[in-house]
Amino acid sequence: MTKDQIFEFFRRLAEDNPSPETELEYGNCYQLVVAVALSAQATDVGVNKATRALFREVETPQQMLALGEDGLKEHIKTIGLFNSKAKNVILLSQLLVDDYGGEVPDTREDLVRLPGVGRKTANVVLNCWFGQETFAVDTHILRVGNRTGLAKGKTPEQVEAKLERRVPQPFRLGAHHWLILHGRYVCKARTPECWRCPVVDLCSYRKKVREKPKGR
Q1: 99 is catalytic
Q2: How many domains in the chain?
Q3: Which domain range does residue 47 map to?
Q4: Catalytic-labelled residue, pool 4, 120, 154, 214
Q5: pLDDT band at 208, cuts 50/70/90?
Q6: 33 and 110, same domain (yes or no)
């Protein structure tokens, strides 16, 4: 895509959804960290179902430590990999208490020190809570970046680097939300719904699905 096409790409997505945000539910920065950590290889819908009762009980890392690993598992046992995720949440909560006074740090370097928090999770927290222009590349963004030609790369890191270079203002803050939502609801993995895509004419995908399949 050219610079003008990229600007138009995001302009249209922004027009459809002026204020994009994560679909994960949380009440403070610590809960956001926990929710994003739990969302690995799980859906936001599934995570939200598990965390609603949990977050009524737990708002701080200190409260999570008081709940304990077994208590946490009872809340999140419907989420995939819940045993390892529960262990990591307890460990990251302890580290927050020990090294950060119970507060979530606002740098990627500090965030990725937390058990279960990788670059993508750190980028989500920096963007959603601290308002930093980061690009959290998940499977949806990896697919959309490659399929559309917006940012091609074999790894999330490669796609992130291209987005960092190519996404213009005023779209940088909301870019990863627009791309995730576009991949989740329109540019789907198996059958992209090109017939209702607002950026179909800007997309380099050759096997466009121009008509809605019967029965859908």
Answers
A1: no
A2: 2
A3: 29-128
A4: 120
A5: confident
A6: yes
Active-site residue 44, yes or no? no
In whole angstroms, give the CA distance from residue 201 to residue 198. Answer: 8
**Sequence-separated (6 or more) residues with CB below 8 Å from residue 60:** 30, 102
Q: Are residues 116 and 161 in the same domain?
A: no
Q: Which residue in this structure is represented by tokens 């302890």?
A: 94
Predicted local distance difference test score (pLDDT) of residue 215: 61
pLDDT score for 216: 57
pLDDT(203) > 80: yes
Residue 215 lies in a domain: no
Scan for tokens 């809570």, then name that residue: 129
Residue 12 in domain: yes
Say whether both 124 and 35 belong to one domain. yes
- What tens digit of pLDDT does each residue of 137-196 get? 999 999 999 999 999 999 999 999 999 999 999 999 999 999 999 999 999 999 999 999
Active-site residue, selected from the candidate residues 4, 70, 77, 138: 138
Residues 37 and 124 in one domain: yes
> Is residue 58 located within the same domain as residue 115?
yes
Contacts 24+ apart (CB under 8 A), 118-122: 119/156, 119/157, 119/160, 120/156, 121/33, 121/36, 121/37, 121/40
